[in-house]
Design a protein that fits this description.
The complex is a heterodimer of chains A (77) and B (170).
Chain A lengths: L4 E5 L6 H9 L8 E6 L4 H12 L2 E8 L2 E7 L4
Parallel strand pairs in A: 1-2
Antiparallel strand pairs in A: 2-4, 3-4
Chain B lengths: L2 H11 L2 E6 L4 H16 L3 E6 L19 H9 L17 H12 L5 H10 L3 E5 H7 L12 E3 L1 H8 L4 E4 L1
Parallel strand pairs in B: 1-2, 1-5, 2-3, 3-4
Helix pairs in contact in B: 2-5
The chains are: A alpha+beta (77), B alpha/beta (170).
Chain lengths: 77, 170
Amino acid sequence: MKADRTLDCVGLYCPMPIVKTSQEIKELGEGDVLEVVADDPGIKSDMPAWCAKTGHEFLGIEEEDGEYHVFVRKRGG
Amino acid sequence: MAETERRDSLKEGGESATIVVFSGELDRALAAFNIATTAASMGMEVTMFFTFWGLNVVRKEDGGGGRKTSLQRMLGLLNRGGTRRLRLSRLNMLGGGRAAMKRLMRQFRMPSLEEMIAMSRELGVRLIACTTTMALMGLTEEDFIPEVESFAGAATYVERASRSAINLFI
């Protein structure tokens, strides 16, 4: 999947990937895709939950060598 | 956080979360701030209300300006404030457990309590200290870290809690 911006959260644990994602998404335009790379498996549940709450679109997760590449499309609140 | 940004985050999630921090232990405070920063990141308006031993979490290390009765002075000696003085609720082992926990947290790049408090302010979390406990312990506003936004009583907490989707007592 192609992303407009990538956020590296490898080595970070809750709540940091979510806190950083919420700050990073502000830098994107409506419809842009943010890729979050993390290695804490909690992200698999947490990012869809964050999207459900904030209204941004959860596009999917790709797992690769113990790292999760999570894709989120920015939607207006 | 600027007021405009706070309004933006409100627009995103809509609801609010309220957390009473009654406990003055490091692990419990970490859990409270973890949930607070997460809820703020999910677009919620978050209020943390510090009361009783929880006041120690947001007290300055070297506060102690106000007039105190002799009992309050004694309490002040036994119950000192500041994040670095907080113990673990379990396995503190005269501070050895706390030191080990802090080392583990650094190793795993987890934010310290001090960093969590700073982060909570950046995310617009409101920190309120309970004036009744302050009076009981002989504490003044000067005894608290600048991140504490206001000083209030239970009615302020109840009013916010009554509008909150999440309400925790830690």
